[in-house]
Amino acid sequence: MSIIKTKFPGLVIYKRETFDDKRGYFRELFLKKDLNKKFVFDYYSLSKKNVLRGLHLQLKKPQGKLITVLSGKIFDVALDCRPKSKTFRQFYTVELSENENISLYIPEGFAHGFCSLANNTLLHYRCTNYRDKNSETGIYWKDKDLAINWPKKKFFVSSKDKKNILFKNFLESKIFKKIKF
Questions:
Q1: Number of domains observed in the structure of the chain
Q2: Which of 11-25, 98-112, 165-179 has the lowest mean pLDDT?
Q3: What's the CA gap between 14 and 2, in Å, rounded?
Q4: What is the DSSP secondary-structure string of 123-166?
Q5: Residue 112 among the catalytic residues
Q6: pLDDT digits (tens, 9 = 90+) for 78-91
Q7: Minimum mean pLDDT among 10-19, 72-81, 117-126: which range?
Q8: Angle at the Cα of 77 (from 71 to 78), degrees rounded to 5?
Q9: Residue 119 belongs to domain with CATH number
Q10: Are 51 and 107 in contact (CB under 8 A)?
């Protein structure tokens, strides 16, 4: 197991062991001793190819997330929304797939999104806080000011995510001025 730091404080790649033999493989998903976080909530999503989800963020009850691809492949994006962070307004991208045994830990205060690069992409999320729909907001994935270089131009996006706000509007909102990540 190893933890690979990024330039973003708290955002790390978590690489675990794979045990292969002629039957297939066995993989560890999470060991508390390696990534000492208090996770309270797990869920997973299944996405078709070219589905885009995000960029999602909880404001009043922020979540740290450990993202693992169980099947398929994604282009993952984490946007630093922590006003006191040296990487505030910057984003991190990485491709995650079932072929590697790596996960991305995204700390509280980041907006998260991804696009599926394969059919039937199964993603496992381990979260440090429960989902609170009254605390949710979304940053528009195609915001020109962010200039995220998505690997495709056309996606299947939910009607909810199509209504996500521009990052500059997020920064000007009353809610943003009250957050304390």
A1: 1
A2: 165-179
A3: 6
A4: EEEEESS---GGGEEEB-TT-TTT----S-S--EE-HHHHTPBP
A5: no
A6: 999 999 999 999 99
A7: 10-19
A8: 120
A9: 2.60.120.10
A10: no
Residue among 14, 105, 125, 140 flagged as catalytic:
125
Sequence-distant (≥ 6) Cβ neighbours of residue 110 within 8 angstroms: 11, 57, 78, 79, 80, 81, 82
Tokens of 164: 């996500």
Q: Which of 56, 105, 112, 140 is catalytic?
A: 56
- Domain with 6, as residue range(s), is 2-178
DSSP element (H, E) containing 170: helix 167-172
Question: What stretch of H or E contains 69?
Answer: strand 65-71
Q: Show the tokens assigned to 85.
A: 């962070």
How confident is the model over 30-68, as pLDDT tens digits?
777 777 889 999 999 999 999 999 999 998 889 999 999
Is residue 156 within 8 A of residue 50, CB to CB? The reply is yes
Q: Looking at 6-50, which runs of residues are DSSP E strands?
A: 12-15, 18-21, 24-27, 41-47
